[in-house]
């Protein structure tokens, strides 16, 4: 293969890679837009989730505007704010001699061109984009646990992590680095303040960090040495002609870090942002779904218990077999429709009937046995109902006993159908990888049928009085 062929192949691969990056980015936009648009929480359900909802909306806005977020983490006094200011080329983040100046996360738009200027940065094939630098408080400050939680929360949202140290790593730094690394985001370990060490010491510390401290966590290419705000010492002659030591802040040396970031964004920019956005959005969406499911599960249980008793009562009071079956099905379909509305996935009557049939098929022999038992009990109940006037009420007691038994069986059936429907709807109107039969089996196994039947019988016993029992016309 000649050089021209190799060049053509490289160009083709670059084009394919760029197309794939565009597709990944567009998919992330579409997915996040769908998540934001489908937030159907009411005021009560949104309580305690305001930050999560705000983060989702902010992520979508950043994705649409092409914002790449980079956050600096580290212990107090490692020069995080000075490092970000050096990258920006101006004093934006607060710095000072007192440790812990940064109390909350701060951010600024960093506009930089590929020629290492100070305008805008253009990521390959992406048009104009914004880089947003985020400064975080020292992880080891007072209220350290809260600071660590903030660090993890920020790390889950950003696209690139800068972990800043100022010498050999301590155990606290290693633990913090490990926790942030576990978030799964791209990371650069920035060895800052190298101006404070002789060249030989710099190399020894770097090798110790590379070969011992982070060997299992980071590659050598992910470790960068910088001096964000070097302290320069000079000997100057004073007015009396004597030499005095004079110190001042020299020019920042962060070009290697700046180029490393630009190279990373040029190679992986779109895919990096798309993947990180989807991961973070998925975590936040899980919290929203859990809150929604927790609150709606309680409401669904109320609807379900009401449906159980409505069906049980209707069947207990109805001596006609055909009407038993019809009224039971009507209640089950109405239950499915009510639950679908509650979970924000409204169904038509046709769809509800289809789901009921699907559940019935998945229940297999249990549904068949219930049908046969119910058919037999309905026939017996109808016969006893016919004989009540002829026996002067002597057949009333066995009628009630049969009615209660049949009603409790039907109630358990509706409870199972409702629980299966809840699981189906909570999973986004899907059965999951295991399929409907497994879902149905697990729910049926979890039901204490004897306890449920006993409770239904007790409630019906209080409702069923001789005056309320309907006998067929002679």
Automatic annotation (TrEMBL):
<dbReference type="GO" id="GO:0030488">
    <property type="term" value="P:tRNA methylation"/>
</dbReference>
<dbReference type="InterPro" id="IPR005225">
    <property type="entry name" value="Small_GTP-bd"/>
</dbReference>
<keyword id="KW-0472">Membrane</keyword>
<feature type="domain" description="G">
    <location>
        <begin position="70"/>
        <end position="193"/>
    </location>
</feature>
<keyword id="KW-0547">Nucleotide-binding</keyword>
<dbReference type="InterPro" id="IPR006073">
    <property type="entry name" value="GTP-bd"/>
</dbReference>
<dbReference type="GO" id="GO:0016020">
    <property type="term" value="C:membrane"/>
</dbReference>
<dbReference type="GO" id="GO:0002098">
    <property type="term" value="P:tRNA wobble uridine modification"/>
</dbReference>
<keyword id="KW-1133">Transmembrane helix</keyword>
<dbReference type="GO" id="GO:0005525">
    <property type="term" value="F:GTP binding"/>
</dbReference>
<dbReference type="InterPro" id="IPR021147">
    <property type="entry name" value="DUF697"/>
</dbReference>
<dbReference type="InterPro" id="IPR027417">
    <property type="entry name" value="P-loop_NTPase"/>
</dbReference>
<keyword id="KW-0812">Transmembrane</keyword>
<dbReference type="Pfam" id="PF01926">
    <property type="entry name" value="MMR_HSR1"/>
</dbReference>
<keyword id="KW-0342">GTP-binding</keyword>
<dbReference type="Pfam" id="PF05128">
    <property type="entry name" value="DUF697"/>
</dbReference>
<protein>
    <submittedName>
        <fullName>Sll0503 protein</fullName>
    </submittedName>
</protein>
<dbReference type="GO" id="GO:0005737">
    <property type="term" value="C:cytoplasm"/>
</dbReference>
């Amino acid at each position: 293969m000649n050089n021209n062929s190799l060049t053509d192949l490289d160009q083709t691969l670059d084009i394919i890679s760029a197309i794939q990056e565009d597709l990944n980015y567009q998919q992330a936009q579409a997915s996040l837009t769908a998540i934001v648009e489908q937030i159907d929480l009411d005021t009560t359900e949104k309580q305690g989730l305001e930050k999560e909802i705000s983060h989702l909306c902010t992520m979508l806005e950043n994705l649409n505007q092409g914002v790449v977020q980079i956050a600096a983490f580290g212990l107090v006094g490692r020069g995080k704010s000075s490092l970000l200011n050096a990258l920006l080329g101006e004093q934006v983040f607060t710095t000072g001699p007192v440790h812990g100046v940064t109390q909350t996360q701060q951010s600024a738009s960093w506009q930089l061109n590929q020629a290492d200027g100070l305008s805008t940065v253009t990521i390959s094939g992406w048009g104009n984009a914004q880089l947003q630098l985020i400064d975080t408080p020292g992880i080891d400050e007072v209220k350290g646990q809260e600071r660590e939680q903030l660090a993890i929360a920020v790390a889950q949202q950003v696209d690139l992590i800068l972990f800043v140290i100022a010498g050999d790593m301590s155990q606290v730094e290693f633990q913090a680095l490990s926790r942030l690394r576990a978030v799964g985001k791209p990371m650069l370990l920035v060895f800052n303040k190298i101006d404070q060490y002789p060249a030989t010491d710099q190399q020894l510390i770097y090798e110790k960090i590379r070969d011992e401290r982070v060997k299992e966590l980071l590659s050598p290419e992910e470790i960068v040495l910088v001096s964000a705000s070097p302290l320069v010492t000079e000997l100057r002659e004073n007015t009396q002609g004597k030499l005095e030591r004079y110190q001042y802040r020299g020019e920042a040396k962060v070009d290697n870090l700046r180029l490393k970031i630009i190279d990373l964004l040029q190679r992986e920019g779109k895919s990096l942002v798309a993947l990180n956005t989807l991961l973070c959005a998925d975590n936040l969406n899980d919290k929203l779904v859990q809150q929604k499911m927790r609150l709606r599960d309680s409401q669904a249980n109320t609807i379900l218990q009401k449906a159980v008793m409505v069906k049980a009562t209707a069947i207990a009071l109805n001596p006609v077999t055909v009407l038993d079956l019809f009224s039971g099905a009507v209640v089950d379909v109405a239950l499915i429709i009510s639950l679908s509305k509650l979970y924000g996935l409204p169904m038509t009557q046709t769809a509800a009937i289809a789901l009921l049939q699907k559940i019935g098929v998945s229940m297999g022999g249990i549904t068949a046995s219930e049908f046969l038992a119910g058919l037999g009990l309905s026939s017996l109940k109808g016969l006893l109902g016919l004989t009540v006037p002829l026996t002067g009420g002597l057949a009333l007691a066995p009628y009630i006993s049969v009615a209660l038994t049949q009603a409790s069986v039907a109630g358990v059936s509706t409870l199972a159908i409702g629980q299966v429907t809840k699981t189906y709807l909570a999973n986004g109107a899907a059965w999951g990888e295991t399929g409907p039969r497994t879902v149905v089996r697990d729910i049926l196994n979890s039901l204490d049928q004897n306890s449920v039947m006993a409770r239904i019988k007790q409630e019906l016993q209080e409702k069923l009085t001789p005056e309320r029992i309907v006998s067929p016309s002679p």
